[in-house]
């Protein structure tokens, strides 16, 4: 596990997506997750993301955005909506999405000032 340097200019927003994966269609999921990551980078206001999943299928993906409007546009992206539908029908047993406003952020890495 690594930690992404997330000291973007504040305020910014974090979309916290927690999920429990099903065991269905793993290859299709991996391909789509890769495509969604590449597509998100191209979206207005996108700052970055980090993602973790354990061996039991529980995971967290946090994406960072400049504004709530940017998050809404990403939610409405047609390719992203298609992936969301597939997630509900096949890839996830459950998920939760939280949106948080980040007012302040700190980053430390040993050996760096």
User: Low-confidence stretches at least 5 residues in length (pLDDT < 50)?
Assistant: none
Number of domains: 1
Question: Regarding CATH, which class?
Answer: Alpha Beta
SSE string: EHEEHHE
The CATH level-2 architecture is identified as 2-Layer Sandwich
Instruction: Please give the radius of gyration in angstroms.
Output: 15 Å
- CATH topology-level name: Alpha-Beta Plaits
Short description:
This protein has 113 residues and is of the alpha+beta class. The chain has helices spanning 26-41, 68-76, 78-91; strands at 12-21, 46-53, 58-65, 92-102.
SSE topology:
Elements: E1 12-21, H1 26-41, E2 46-53, E3 58-65, H2 68-76, H3 78-91, E4 92-102
Antiparallel strand pairs: 1-3, 1-4, 2-3
Structure description:
With 113 residues, the protein is of the alpha+beta class. The protein has a single domain (12-102), classed as Alpha-Beta Plaits, CATH 3.30.70.100. Helix content is 35%, strand content 33%. The protein contains three helices and four strands. The chain has helices spanning 26-41, 68-76, 78-91; strands at 12-21, 46-53, 58-65, 92-102. The chain has a four-stranded antiparallel sheet. A hairpin with a 4-residue loop joins β2 (46-53) and β3 (58-65). The longest helix has 16 residues, at 26-41. The chain is globular and about 45 Å long. The two termini are 22 Å apart.
